[in-house]
Write a structure and sequence with these properties.
Helix Hairpins; 52% helix; 5-stranded antiparallel β-sheet; SH3 type barrels; rod-shaped; MS_channel_C; Mechanosensitive ion channel
């Protein structure tokens, strides 16, 4: 039999529960806004800006997620969940979530390895896990690249931490390799002289190490020259394309032929029937 006191107790319990639920929701809403504000202020703080961009992006991501986790825990405790019960539930849930999110945890471990071992930094141009681009951000779980044609590529940190990659920006200087083929009628010394003159006119090509120009192969229809020059890493593509064009123009002026395949088509007239 339901008594008046039981109804009053139920109303009181529901009001208390509703108040706690409303408080928890408010904590989540206000807490997330405060976290976003802290993250905004932190990223634009004078001292934080001076931090290495690679470490900066990782710390920002870790701080943001850590504070949001704290807000969620506070909201749950506001509902009246006891700490001991919450810890037990959290432990059980953590085990289940850990098993379900093994990939994400490996990405987190990969992010930590990348930050401490520094195989690449923000701003480096890298190639790894089947993609190539400039590193824009290293987060807790993913690394963001931008390709030369401005595509965004998001790669799991575990893929970059546990596989081979190429960092084209690691060193300040890079070698540019060329292959030039000329006719067998061309004079070897003249060819080398023309190529070296092109190299000497290009101010972006370094004087040391000394440029390398040598005959490398007697091809089926051409003499093949290997050319190697050193440049600052940021000038690699400028030198690569400019040298290709200037060597062709210099060969034309010097009368040096660049062989190319020829196809001779012969036709045979059919006998016409006599009338």
């Amino acid at each position: 039999m339901v008594t008046l006191s039981m109804i009053e107790a139920f109303k009181t319990s529901m009001m208390t529960l509703g108040f706690k639920a409303l408080s928890g929701i408010l904590i989540l809403i206000i807490g997330f806004k405060v976290v976003n504000l802290i993250d905004y202020r932190l990223n634009r703080g004078k001292n934080f800006i001076k931090i290495d961009p690679t470490l900066k992006s990782f710390l920002s991501s870790a701080t943001r997620m850590g504070l949001k986790g704290l807000v969620v825990i506070t909201a749950i405790l506001q509902l009246g969940v006891q700490i001991t019960s919450f810890v037990a539930i959290l432990g059980t849930a953590g085990l289940a979530v850990g098993l379900a999110l093994q990939g994400s945890l490996s990405n987190l471990a990969g992010g930590v390895l990348i930050i401490f071992l520094r195989p690449f930094r923000v701003g480096d141009y890298i190639e790894g896990n089947g993609h190539a681009g400039t590193v824009r951000d290293i987060g807790l779980f993913y690394t963001h690249l931008t390709t030369p044609d401005n595509k965004a590529v998001i790669i799991p940190n575990s893929g970059l931490a546990n596989s081979s990659l190429i960092n084209y920006s690691e060193h300040s200087e890079r070698r540019v390799d060329f292959d030039f083929g000329v006719s067998y009628d061309a004079d070897i010394k003249t060819v080398k002289k023309v190529i070296l003159e092109v190299i000497e006119r290009n101010e972006l090509i370094l004087k040391t190490p000394e440029p390398f120009v040598r005959l490398a192969n007697h091809g089926a229809s051409s003499l093949d020259f290997k050319v190697r020059v050193w440049v600052a890493s940021e000038n690699y593509w400028d030198v690569f394309f400019t040298t290709q064009e200037e060597v062709k123009e210099a060969f034309d002026k010097a009368g040096i032929e660049i062989p190319y395949p020829h196809m001779v088509v012969q036709t045979q007239a059919l006998d016409q029937p006599s009338k």
